[in-house]
Amino acid sequence: MGLDSVELVLRLEEEFSISIADEEAADSLTVGDIYHLILSKIQVAPGCVTRRAFYLTRRALIDTLGVTRRSIRPASPLSPLFPEPARRKQWDEMAESMGLTVPPLRLHHDLKQEVYMSAFGVSAVVAILAPILTAIFLSVPLGITAFVLAFVLWIALGIALCGLLLRLNRPRATELPADTAGELAQILLGLNQEHFEASAQKTPLTDEQVWLKVVDIFADQLQIAREEIVPNATINGDLEVD
């Protein structure tokens, strides 16, 4: 499949929330063939939010990283697609292209452990010194209440410091929030549930509306007049799609 063919298939998949195999695309010789293929898939499997989330994820990965359609499957690992030296920049570009809530990169496990140890270490010192200094300066004996309050102070201060240090270290985050493209799509679906559910609840398209959308996509993608897109027009011949 050439570049034009790949882009057409991608747009059709995303528009109708269907999956078109390479073999099916190759067997569709005319615009009418593509139209009937889409109708059959819509009738068998209406739009699904999970598929829509994956198609949007795949489109963003292709546009941002310049990879091929075939290289993005639900099981495709993300690490090779986002090499660490350019990971933050690429991740931000992908998030911007999606226009949705995208999970941020995470701190490496070792760095996160370092943050936790630092936060609770500092808070432990403060929690221990607070009742001792209070007892010294106020000349009051240390009691069980002082130790209970010290424990509460240790936990509360530790949690607060953890939150602060995690925010401060966010620019150092490089760990991907998902291992595969499919997992990323599921996370995006969870973060943007209302967006995807709203798109899935649209009124089903009529056959005529499906045809008009197919024509619109062909015309826009190939930059040709709508009048040229007729059912018996051959995709590789009449429309010169590579």
Task: Explain what this protein looks like in three dimensions.
- The chain is mainly alpha-helical.
- It folds into two domains: 3-104 and 178-228, no CATH class; 109-172, no CATH class.
- Helix content is 64%, strand content 0%.
- It contains ten helices and no strands.
- It has helices at residues 3-16, 22-27, 31-44, 49-65, 84-98, 109-138, 144-168, 181-191, 193-200, 207-222.
- Helix 6 packs antiparallel against helix 7.
- The longest helix has 30 residues, at 109-138.
- The termini are close together.
- Mean pLDDT equals 85
The largest β sheet comes out as: none
What is the CA-CA span between the terminal residues?
A: 7 Å
Number of helices: 10
Q: How many domain regions?
A: 2
Tell how many strands the DSSP assignment holds. Answer: 0
SSE string:
HHHHHHHHHH
Global shape: elongated
Helix/strand class? mainly alpha
Spell out the blueprint of helices and strands.
Elements: H1 3-16, H2 22-27, H3 31-44, H4 49-65, H5 84-98, H6 109-138, H7 144-168, H8 181-191, H9 193-200, H10 207-222
Helix pairs in contact: 1-10, 3-10, 4-5, 4-8, 4-9, 6-7
List the keywords:
mainly alpha, 10 helices, elongated
TL;DR?
64% of the residues lie in helices and 0% in strands.
